[in-house]
Design a protein that fits this description.
The complex is a heterodimer of chains A (637) and B (641). Chain A is globular. Chain A is α/β, with parallel strands linked by helices. Chain A is built from 28 helices and 21 strands. Chain B is of the alpha/beta class and 641 residues long. The chains are: A alpha/beta (637), B alpha/beta (641).
Chain lengths: 637, 641
C-alpha cells in the first residue's frame, strides 16, 4: 500500500495543492518553496496522535495569505491522503481484512482504496485549534459509524509507517543506541542466553586482568570508594573500575560501523570518514532497518513511506548521479526533495514535481498522465464514454471524469453537449473548458522517451531554472551566453537555462515541456525554412499564434551568419577566421566567407564570444533578435 | 477444569455439538431442536474460528434476528475469546445491511448518515410528500394513493424493484399507477436520504447484485458466515445471502429448526431450508437433544409435531437430555380447565400470586393473542403482581423522549422539516404550551436561521424560569458541540430522572428512561462508549424502545415474542379451538399450512419451559363454547372430544 494522492489545504505555505505520488517522487524547487512542508504534511498525518489534546497543528501551521490574516478565521488545515490499489486485489488479504472498515471498493474496477482526511481548525468554544481525522468514502464524504472508530486510524498507520530523514543527517545521532533505525535494530538482535553468559564471564575476566595490569588502578579504586562511605549510612558500598562494558547489551549498544573505501586502506570508524559517506550510510541503514525489522515492529504487509531530504548531501556529482538508482531501489514509497541536478538526471520525468511559491502559495507542476474534473453524471455521458474508450473514464460515486491524454476538440464538444440543458450548464461548461485547457498540457510517453534519450546531459539542470531560452545550436549558445552578460543580464545569475535545442532533441518538445511545468520560455531561431518550421510545429501544439509570435523570434536576414553579416559584422568575422588560422580570411569573396563560417560554426562563434567579452560596443552590434530576447527575459512570466 | 474459557466451553459440548463447532470449510446445516444449545454451538464456533486464526485479520459474519440475540452472542464470544470479539461481525440482517449501505451505499446514491424510518407515521408522511411532489410534476397521482403504501411494502419485501412493479402486478387494473407511486415514494426516500425497514434488505441486495465487486469484497473480508434461526429467513433475506455468496462461496453455516417456523406469514418456509441444502450442497448435522425441558415436555412436543407434514424428512425426534430437575415430575406438565376466560385469568393470576416474588421473575404467560394477554395483565395487577406485556416498541411512549430523539435528529439534519414538526409537537405536550409550528417554520425561512435555533428561542420565551429551560440550554450546547453528546444527553436524562422523583410518577417516562439507558448501555458495550451521534441515532432507530422488565416481574408475551427465550415456569393460556389454533387457521382446513404454523406456535410455546409447564383452557371464550385445543389432544394431554 502506498500513497497515491496527496491533498493539502491551508498548511503553512500551501493554500491548496493536489498531487499524485508514485513509488518514488522527487520534489525540486527553490529554498522556501514549500518542499519540506509537503514532506511534513505526510509525516504529521501518519504519525501525530490525532484527536488527543495538544496534538493538532498550531496557529503557525495555518496558511495565511497576508501578514494581517487571523489564523482563527481560516477554514483550517486539511490534509488528505489517498491510497489506492493499482490493480484490483493487489493489497494482501490480511491488509484488506484488517482495514475492512475503512477500505472502499471501486464498484467497476474492483480496486480498493482508502482516503484519510486530517484537519485542524480553530474552535472558539474550546479556545484551541482542534485536530480531527476521518476516513472518506467514494464520494469523499465522511464515513461514519464503525469506520470512524479510532482503532481504524491506528491500524492504517501500522500499514503505512512513515520515516523521515532530514537534510541534516548526522551519522553520530543516527548510529546512536537511541536512534530510530540503529537503536531499534540493535535492541531487536537476539543473543542466545548461553552466549550471553559466556560473554559476561569473558568481560568480567578481562576487566580483572586489566585491573591487575597496573597496581595503581587498585589504589585509585580504593580512593574513589570514599564517595560511598560518605553517602551511605551504615554499610560500605564499593567502587570498582570497569574498563569493558558491564552487560552484553552495553557491548551491543556501543557497536559502531567501521569501514574503508579501498581494500588496502585502514579501517576507520564511520565518524572519521567524510560527510558524504556518513550521510550515505544513514540511507543504507534505513534499508537494513526495513529489511530486518519493519515486519516485526509493524505488520508483515506494512510498506514504509520514506520522506527523504536531499539525499545528495555532501556527495560528489558522480556519486549523486548513481545515488538515484540506489534510492529508487529502497523498499517502500519514497518522497524525496533534492537540489542536485546530478541526482535528478536519471529521475523519470513523470516522477518529478516542480514546487514553487506563487502569490497563491505553494504550487506544484508536473507531467500528469491524465486529468481529472468533478462533474455530475448525466445519462448522455454514457455514449461519449463508449465512443472514447481508453481516453475517457467516469467514476460515478466520485462524480469525476478522467481524461487519459489530450481532450480533442470534437470530444470536448460532445461533452459540452451532454450538459446543454443542465441547470448548472454554465458552471459545468466552465469546468469542462478548464479540463480541456489542462489536457492540452499532456505530453505522451513517446515524446518523453525521446527527450530522455537526447536531453540527458542538460535535463538535470533545466528543471532548476526559472526561465528557458531556446536557441538552435551551439554557436547561438556560445554567443548568447556572453552577450547576455555584456547586456547586464547574466543568465546563470538569473537562473535562466539557455538550451541549444538541436543537440538535445527538438525545440517543440522543450516548448511544451516548459508550458506543462509552468516555466516561462522564449526562442530565437534562424530566419530560414528550418526556423520557420520550428515556429510552425510549436504553434501546432495548441499554442495561441499571437503568443508564439511574441515568444518565437527569427533572424530577419536568414541564418545566424546571414544575420551577423547583415548587421555589418563582416570585418569582425573575417578577423575571427583569421585568428582561427584561416590566412586567406580577409580576402575570400562573400560566398566563400559564408561557406567558411558555416563550416567552422562552433569555432568562429567561440572566438566571437571571446571577443565579445568586455566589449560593449561590439555587443551593441549583435543581432537585434538576440538582444530583444534577452531584454524580454527580464520579468518574463 | 483448566484451560481458557473457550477450552472449558468446548469441553462441555457433546460430541455432535463439537463436530458442528469444528466444522471447517463448506456449507453446513445444523438442525437444532429447542433447548439443544444452538446459541452455544454458534458462539463456540465463532470463538473457535477466531481462536484458530489469531494471526489473521479476517472477520466472521453472524446474522440473527433480534438485537437482543445479537448482543447475547457478542457477549458470549467476548467471554470465550477476550480481545478477539472485534473480529466477530455479529448483527441482525437489518443492522448488517445498514452497515453495508453505510460503507458502500454511496454507489446507489445513499449517503452514510441515512435515516431509518421504522414507524408507519413517518412513512406515511414521506408518501404524502412524494405524492405531492409527483402531482406537482404532473404525474397521474393523487393524495388518495397513500393507500398503496401497504402494497408497496408487499412488493419491497420480496425485492420487487419499482421498474418491475408494473409487470409483477399484472392482475391489478391500477398497476401502472401503483408503479408510479412506488417510484415516487422511493425517490422521496432518496431525496431525504432515508430508508425504511424493507429498503435495508432491498438496497443491500441491489448493491451486491449491481456491483459484484462489493460482494466479492465481503467474501474476502468475511470468509465464514453463520446464520442463526435460519428457518425464519424470508425469501428476500435468503436471496441476499445467495447473491452475496454467488456460485463459488460455500462457507455458510446455518442453524435452523423447521419445527419452529412461526413467520410463515412473512415468507419463512421449510422450503428455504431445502433451498439452502440444494444451493450450497450443505451437509447436515442434527442436534435433537433437548437440555432445557423436563422429559414430559419433550415427549409432549414430539407427540405434537409429528402431526405436521411440511418438515424436513428424516428429522429426528427430540431426545430428553435435561438431568437436574427442580420440581417433582407431577409439576412438569399440568393442565388446568376453567369455565370462562375470566375464570381462567382470575385463577391463573391467583396461582401466580401465590408463588411469590422469588418466582415471579422466572414466570411467563404465553398466549396466541394480545387480547388474552391484556386480560391476564389486568388480573395480575389486581393481585398486585408486577407484570408487563413484552412487545417490540418502535417509538418512545413519552413526549419527553420523542422530543429528545427528535432534537438529536435535528442537530444532525438541520433542514429536516418533518422532524422539527415532531420535535415541536412533543415539546408542546411536555411543556403544555402552544408554539405554532407554521410560525417557527416561516420565521426560520425568513431569517435564514436554522429551525432548531429559531425554535429554541421561541420555546425559551415560553418556558422561562421553569426546569424546562434547563433542557433547552442543554440542547443548545449539544447543537453547538455534538462531540460532547454523551455528557449532555446524560444531563438531559438526569433532568428527566429528577422530574420523576419530584412529581407524580409518570410510568411512560419511567419506562422510556429505563429503555434509553439500557439501549445506551448495550451500544456502549458492543459498539464503544464514544460512538458518534449519527451512529447512535441509526442504532436507536433500529432497536426496540422497550425496557427489560424489573426484577420480580411476570412477563406476558405472544408466542412470537417468546421466540428464543426460556423461563422456569411457563403458562400457556387459551388452549382451545379457535384460539390456539386460531379461527382463521381452522377455516383454512385441518391440513392447511396455516394449521401447521399454529401447531409450531404451540410447539415453540411449550418448549420455552425449563422446569414447569402449565397449560390452561376455558370452556367458553367471549361467551362461545369452545372445544379443548386439538393440540392438547395431540400432545396426549386431553381426550379427543
Amino acid at each position: 500500500m502506498r500513497i497515491a494522492r496527496l491533498k493539502i489545504e491551508n498548511f503553512r505555505s500551501t493554500k491548496a495543492l493536489d498531487m499524485e505520488l508514485g513509488e518514488t517522487t522527487v520534489l525540486i524547487g527553490p529554498n522556501n518553496a514549500g518542499k519540506t512542508s509537503i514532506l511534513d504534511a505526510v509525516r504529521i498525518v501518519l504519525t501525530r496522535r490525532w484527536g488527543q489534546r495538544g496534538t493538532g497543528f498550531t496557529e503557525y501551521d495555518v496558511h495565511l495569505a497576508s501578514e494581517s490574516d487571523d489564523p482563527k478565521e481560516s477554514t483550517g488545515i486539511a490534509i488528505e491522503l489517498h491510497s489506492e490499489e493499482q490493480v484490483a486485489g493487489e493489497w494482501p488479504d490480511a491488509l484488506q481484512q484488517d482495514l475492512d472498515d475503512i477500505a472502499q471498493t471501486d464498484p467497476t474496477t474492483g480496486k480498493s482504496f482508502i482516503t484519510l482526511r486530517a484537519s485542524c481548525a480553530w474552535n472558539a468554544a474550546e479556545g484551541a485549534f482542534l485536530p480531527a481525522w476521518i476516513f472518506l468514502n467514494a464520494a469523499r464524504e465522511p464515513m461514519i459509524g464503525q469506520s470512524a472508530r479510532r482503532m481504524n486510524l491506528e491500524r492504517f498507520w501500522q500499514y503505512l509507517p512513515v520515516f523521515y530523514l532530514g537534510a541534516l543527517r548526522d551519522a553520530d545521532d543516527e548510529f546512536s543506541a537511541r536512534s530510530q533505525f540503529w537503536g531499534r535494530l540493535l535492541k531487536a538482535m537476539e543473543i542466545p542466553t548461553a552466549l550471553e553468559q559466556r560473554v559476561q564471564r569473558v568481560l568480567d575476566l578481562l576487566n580483572r586482568r586489566l585491573l591487575q595490569a597496573d597496581p595503581r588502578l587498585v589504589q585509585i579504586a580504593k580512593t574513589l570508594s570514599g564517595a560511598t562511605r560518605v553517602a551511605a549510612r551504615d554499610r560500605d558500598g564499593g567502587v570498582e573500575l570497569r574498563f569493558v562494558p558491564l552487560k552484553s547489551w552495553d557491548l551491543l549498544s556501543k557497536a559502531e560501523i567501521i569501514l574503508r573505501n579501498e581494500p588496502d586502506w585502514p579501517w576507520l570508524p564511520l565518524q572519521h570518514h567524510g560527510q558524504g559517506v556518513q550521510s550515505l550510510s544513514v540511507i543504507f541503514l534505513f534499508q537494513a532497518f526495513v529489511e530486518h525489522l519493519l515486519a516485526e515492529l509493524y505488520k508483515a504487509d506494512s510498506e514504509p513511506v520514506l520522506a527523504l531530504e536531499e539525499p545528495e548531501t555532501h556527495l560528489h556529482p558522480q556519486a549523486a548521479r548513481t545515488l538515484w538508482a540506489h534510492v529508487n531501489a529502497l523498499p517502500g514509497q519514497k518522497i524525496i526533495t533534492t537540489h542536485s541536478p546530478y541526482f535528478v538526471q536519471h529521475v523519470p520525468f513523470r516522477d518529478l514535481r516542480l514546487i514553487r511559491r506563487t502569490d497563491n502559495g505553494t504550487e506544484v507542476k508536473w507531467l500528469p498522465p491524465n486529468f481529472l474534473a468533478r462533474i455530475p453524471y448525466v445519462p448522455a455521458l454514457d455514449q461519449v464514454l463508449a465512443n472514447n474508450p481508453g481516453l475517457l473514464e467516469f467514476d460515478l460515486a466520485g462524480q469525476t471524469i478522467t481524461v487519459n491524454g489530450k481532450l480533442e476538440d470534437a470530444v470536448y464538444r460532445d461533452l459540452l453537449s451532454c450538459y446543454g440543458t443542465h441547470t448548472d450548464c454554465a458552471v459545468i461548461h466552465g469546468i469542462l473548458c478548464d479540463l480541456r485547457d489542462r489536457s492540452l498540457l499532456f505530453i505522451d510517453n513517446d515524446e518523453l522517451r525521446a527527450l530522455e534519450t537526447f536531453a540527458r546531459r542538460i535535463r538535470g539542470e533545466i528543471f532548476f531554472a526559472t526561465r528557458w531560452m531556446i536557441v538552435e545550436g551551439q554557436a547561438e549558445y556560445l554567443i548568447v551566453h556572453v552577450l547576455a552578460r555584456e547586456l547586464g543580464y547574466d543568465l546563470d545569475e538569473h537562473g535562466v537555462s539557455l538550451m541549444d535545442a538541436m543537440n538535445n532533441g527538438n525545440p517543440t518538445t522543450f516548448a511544451v515541456l516548459a508550458r506543462a511545468l509552468g516555466i516561462p520560455w522564449l526562442t530565437v531561431f534562424d530566419g530560414d525554412a528550418a526556423g520557420d518550421g520550428y515556429t510552425q510545429t510549436i504553434t501546432n501544439r495548441d499554442f495561441d499564434p499571437a503568443f508564439v509570435a511574441q515568444r518565437c523570434r527569427t533572424h530577419p536576414a536568414g541564418d545566424l551568419e546571414d544575420q551577423l553579416l547583415a548587421d555589418g559584422l563582416e570585418a569582425e568575422l573575417r578577423g575571427v577566421l583569421q585568428s582561427l588560422g584561416h590566412t586567406d580570411a580577409l580576402t575570400i569573396d562573400m560566398p566563400t566567407l559564408e561557406k567558411r563560417l558555416e563550416k567552422n560554426k562552433t569555432a568562429y562563434a567561440a572566438e566571437l564570444a571571446k571577443q565579445l567579452r568586455g566589449n560593449t560596443a561590439l555587443a551593441k552590434r549583435m543581432p537585434q533578435g538576440f538582444k530583444d530576447a534577452i531584454a524580454d527575459l527580464r520579468g518574463l512570466t | 477444569m483448566n484451560g481458557t474459557p473457550l477450552d472449558i466451553a468446548l469441553a462441555k459440548l457433546t460430541d455432535i455439538q463439537r463436530e458442528a463447532v469444528k466444522w471447517d470449510q463448506g456449507a453446513m446445516l445444523v438442525l437444532a431442536g429447542p433447548g439443544s444449545g444452538k446459541t452455544q454451538v454458534l458462539t463456540c464456533r465463532i470463538a473457535h474460528l477466531l481462536n484458530d486464526s489469531r494471526e489473521d485479520n479476517f472477520r466472521v459474519l453472524a446474522l440473527t434476528f433480534t438485537n437482543k440475540a445479537a448482543d447475547e452472542m457478542k457477549r458470549r464470544v467476548a467471554t470465550f475469546v477476550p480481545g478477539l470479539e472485534e473480529r466477530a461481525n455479529i448483527g441482525t440482517f437489518h443492522s448488517f445491511c445498514g452497515q453495508v449501505l453505510r460503507q458502500h451505499g454511496v454507489h446507489l446514491g445513499i449517503k452514510p448518515d441515512f435515516t431509518i424510518y421504522a414507524q408507519d407515521d413517518d412513512r406515511r408522511a414521506v408518501m404524502e410528500d412524494a405524492l405531492a411532489r409527483a402531482a406537482f410534476e404532473g404525474k397521474a397521482v393523487s393524495s388518495d394513493d397513500i393507500r398503496y403504501l401497504k402494497l408497496i411494502d408487499q412488493m419491497k419485501a420480496p425485492l420487487i424493484e419499482p421498474q418491475d412493479a408494473e409487470a409483477r402486478l399484472s392482475h391489478l387494473a391500477e398497476r401502472e399507477r401503483v408503479a408510479l407511486v412506488y417510484q415516487a415514494y422511493e425517490e422521496e426516500l432518496r431525496r431525504l436520504n432515508a430508508l425504511d425497514f424493507n429498503s435495508l434488505i432491498l438496497e443491500a441486495h441491489r448493491l451486491v447484485t449491481t456491483y459484484p465487486a462489493i460482494a466479492a469484497r465481503y467474501k474476502r473480508s468475511h470468509p465464514y458466515w453463520l446464520l442463526d434461526e435460519f428457518q425464519d429467513t424470508n425469501d428476500a433475506q435468503y436471496r441476499l445471502i445467495r447473491a452475496m455468496a454467488g456460485d463459488e462461496f460455500h462457507n455458510v453455516f446455518a442453524v435452523a429448526d423447521d419445527d419452529q417456523i412461526i413467520y410463515q406469514w412473512n415468507g419463512a418456509s421449510f422450503r428455504q431450508i431445502q433451498r439452502l441444502r440444494a444451493d450450497f450442497s450443505a451437509q447436515l448435522i442434527q442436534l435433537p437433544t433437548n437440555y432445557r425441558c423436563p422429559p414430559a415436555i419433550v415427549e409432549a412436543a414430539n407427540h405434537l409435531v409429528v402431526y405436521n407434514v411440511q418438515r424436513t424428512e428424516a428429522k429426528k425426534p427430540l431426545i430428553a437430555g435435561k438431568i437436574a430437575l427442580k420440581y417433582p415430575e407431577s409439576e412438569h406438565i399440568q393442565v388446568r380447565e376453567f369455565e370462562s376466560e375470566e375464570d381462567e385469568a382470575e385463577a391463573i393470576a391467583q396461582e401466580i400470586a401465590a408463588r411469590g416474588f422469588d418466582q415471579w421473575g422466572q414466570i411467563t404467560v404465553l398466549a396466541r393473542t394480545r387480547a388474552l394477554l391484556e386480560r391476564m395483565h389486568k388480573a395480575l395487577q389486581a393481585k398486585n403482581v408486577p407484570a408487563v406485556i413484552a412487545q417490540r416498541r418502535d417509538d418512545f411512549l413519552s413526549p419527553e423522549f420523542r422530543w429528545l430523539a427528535a432534537c438529536l435528529a435535528q442537530i444532525l439534519r438541520p433542514l429536516d422539516r418533518r422532524n422539527i414538526n415532531v420535535l415541536m409537537e412533543a415539546f408542546n405536550r411536555m411543556a403544555e404550551i402552544e408554539i405554532a409550528v407554521d410560525q417557527i417554520m416561516s420565521e426560520a425561512e425568513a431569517t435564514g436561521e436554522g429551525y432548531l435555533s429559531v425554535w429554541l428561542q421561541a420555546a425559551r420565551a415560553e418556558v422561562a424560569a421553569s426546569p424546562k429551560e434547563n433542557l433547552l440550554d442543554l440542547i443548545r450546547q449539544l447543537a453547538a458541540d455534538p462531540s460532547a453528546a454523551r455528557k449532555l444527553i446524560n444531563d438531559v436524562l438526569n433532568v428527566f430522572d429528577s422530574a420523576l422523583s419530584d412529581e407524580q410518577t409518570d410510568p411512560d417516562l419511567a419506562e422510556d428512561l429505563a429503555a434509553w439507558r439500557e439501549i445506551s448501555r448495550d451500544m456502549a458495550r458492543h459498539l464503544g462508549r464514544n460512538i458518534p451521534l449519527d451512529q447512535f441515532l441509526q442504532q436507536l432507530q433500529l432497536r426496540s424502545k422497550e425496557p427489560s422488565p424489573q426484577p420480580g416481574t411476570v412477563t406476558l408475551m405472544t408466542v412470537h415474542g417468546a421466540k428464543g427465550r426460556e423461563f422456569d415456569i411457563v403458562y400457556v393460556i387459551g388452549l382451545a379451538e379457535d384460539i390456539m389454533p386460531s379461527y382463521q387457521s381452522r377455516q383454512k382446513g385441518d391440513n392447511s399450512p396455516e394449521m401447521e404454523e399454529e401447531r409450531r406456535n404451540c410447539f415453540v410455546a411449550i418448549t420455552r419451559a425449563k422446569e414447569s409447564l402449565i397449560l390452561s383452557r376455558a370452556n367458553r371464550y367471549r361467551g362461545w363454547q369452545k372445544q379443548p385445543s386439538r393440540f392438547l389432544v395431540e400432545m396426549e394431554l386431553a381426550d379427543s372430544a
